[in-house]
Amino acid sequence: MAEPTPSLAPARPPTGPRVWNNPRARAIIYQVLVLGGVIGAAAYLIDNTLTNLAERSIRSGFSFIWHEAGFAISEALIDYQPNHSYVRAFIAGLLNTLKVGLLGIVLVTILGIIIGIARLSTNWLVARLASVYVETFRNVPLLLQLYLWYSLLTEMLPGGRDALSLFTAFYLNKSGLMYPVPVYDGIHPFMIVAFLIGCVGAYAWGRYATRRHEATGVPTPRFWPSVGFVLGLPLVVWLIGGAPTAIDVPQMERFRFVGGWHVSIEFIALLLGLVVYTGAFVAETVRAGILSVSRGQTEAALSLGLRRGLVLRLVLLPQALRVIMPPLTSQYLNLMKNSSLAVAIGYPDLVAVANTTLNQTGQAIEAIAVIMAVYLTISLAISGFMNWYNKRVALVER
Amino acid sequence: MINLAERRAASGPVIQMAGVNKWYGEFHVLKNINLEVRSGERVVVCGPSGSGKSTMIRCINRLEEHQKGRIVVDGIELIADLKQIDAVRREIGMVFQHFNLFPHMTVLENLTLAPMWVRNTPRKEAEDAAMAYLERVKIPEQAHKFPGQLSGGQQQRVAIARSLCMKPKIMLFDEPTSALDPEMIKEVLDVMIELAQGGMTMICVTHEMGFARTVADSMVFMDGGEIVEKAPPTEFFKNPKSERTKLFLSQILH
Question: Considering the domain boundaries, does residue A286 fall inside one?
Fold first, then answer.
């Protein structure tokens, strides 16, 4: 027997849906409105700016960068004099930013890993100290910490000839750290080449070790042979080059130190501040990553007879890294961008140079555009690299 | 199965626990545990939760440290010596309630990891052996998948195969079916029964009394950190001696 067709409730008289009640039409209307708003606001700002610049007869455009800068930069990695152009000043500032940023990233990684692991230590004192460090330094504003380090260093350290000395080769005073460097020798460039070849060699050795292990079952050592390649090759080249041992040691003369190399107290304070502050965040990231791997993973690996080192390397780290990498990228970016606070303690980074330029030329928009473009480029480069690396260590689970 | 009596007579104890005690702070988890397991013997440990069953078998491969008494496994005493502990762990396979497969490796990589890094087996050989064990647990077609793609029952069978790849003398099972959906329990128990019939020395913490009746040589009942009763299954189920055992059995057997 056929089921009777269920009767529908009487429909409302068809009025035809209104356009703005159609979800798709509504989405398009919203997008058009937002886009129109953005274009309108941008047009207003640009027009307003151009009109104002014209009224005050301020020059615009980037031609000023070729003019003579006329101001000095207290420290630079390239040769820079006040009679050089603005563009050269910008480059000197950029290199100073990169110097503190890249060195900071390396140091913060080491510090963060140590503190992160220390906070998980079963040793009560070690874990407590690490906690105190993290809670103190991540909860005090960075600018304040920079002032603290800078005033600590400049107040506490002796001045001029009374510099603290280590092995009568390293000197630390109010103006900075003086340290010895080898006197340039013709063999040094070859040592750098040897170092690079050693890195390639270490990588090749790693691949060979894996293949040999898979083929014969004998686990092949990686660490010491790699160290041998990376450090040994330059050493051999150095010996072949007659082992030049001349070292340029800073010497105290009547009024100042000569010889050796020098980093300023501003640089030290900035680096210290950035590393100590960001290190607290990195430590938490590392701790979270390790804790994210369940205890059962360690137990399973141990019960298979794997030694603790192998458990860490083969089971724990690969799983912890995928949790650590994305927030670690953010911390690297933070460190790089926070280095712009250098201006507060007088380290001549890009922002400091741009500020001076802005004051001298009045071309605020251009100067700020340069800063923004540079930081954007650096940040995109870092996150690009980290994303690439993250993909490599990312956990494939399904 | 046939030569059980002979096999038992021929071999001495492979696991000896004598006067083992353990505390978590003030809490006395294991109280004077004495247990001997002969080679080829299948022991099923049961008891209410919190009675120390898991802790006891975890002491046997030193995932937990005992504070008093002696544990000797296959002639090696478990003392604070990493070499000795690793040697014991190589001889003991362990299967966990939550499988604990390595999620970042394929099934095959899970199985070959320990043979390659602990036994120094070449990859090809380790993979062939692993495939043979996957056949035994009836999932060779899953070899190249990741654990996350498998059902609970399949994951537990992979975990058993992973332990077997190390060719252990003893297998410990810590509630291997407790985290499984009911329809998957059988496939895991079948594998365990087959293993038992092959003569493996086994200690199982489980509440699967049907399994216990089928394979166990002896039942151990624990309560409050002590071994209350140890008896062959027929006796254990028919005439439990202690009141606590009777109460426990009345609660789990309907």
Answer: yes
Q: Which of B104, B116, B123 sits opposite A396 (nearest CB)?
A: B104
Interface check for A310 against chain B (CB to CB < 8 A): the answer is yes
List the single best residue of B60, B96, B102 to mutate versus A (max A Cβ within 10 A): B102
> How much is the ipTM here?
0.90
**How many cross-chain Cβ pairs, A to B, lie less than 8 Å apart?**
88
What residue numbers bound the domain in which A273 lies? 86-163+265-393
Domain span holding position B151: 4-252
Residue-by-residue pLDDT tens, chain A, 398 positions: 556 667 666 666 666 677 778 888 888 999 999 999 999 999 999 898 888 888 877 777 777 778 887 888 888 888 888 888 888 888 988 999 999 999 999 999 999 999 998 998 888 899 999 999 999 999 999 999 999 999 988 888 777 777 777 777 788 887 788 887 777 777 888 888 889 999 999 999 988 888 888 888 887 888 888 888 888 888 888 888 777 777 777 777 766 677 777 788 889 999 999 999 999 999 999 999 989 999 999 999 999 999 888 898 899 888 998 889 889 988 999 999 999 998 888 888 889 888 888 888 878 888 888 899 998 998 899 888 888 888 877 766 65
The SS3 of residue B35 is strand
Question: A165 by DSSP, 3-state: which?
Answer: strand
In order of A33, A334, B203, the CA distances from B40 in angstroms are 78, 61, 10
Q: Which amino acid is at B85?
A: I
Contacts of A340 (CB under 8 A, 6+ apart): A97, A349, A350, A351, A371, A375
Q: State the CATH number of the domain containing residue B21.
A: 3.40.50.300
Indicate the number of domains in chain B. 1
Asked if the Cβ–Cβ distance from B118 to A305 is below 8 Å, we say yes
- Taking CA–CA distances from A315, the nearest residue in chain B reads B102
CATH assignment of the domain containing A388? 1.10.3720.10
Least Cα separation, residue A316 to chain B (angstroms): 9
Tell me, yes or no, whether A20 lies in a domain: no
Chain B environment of A398 (Cβ under 8 Å): 145-146, 148-149
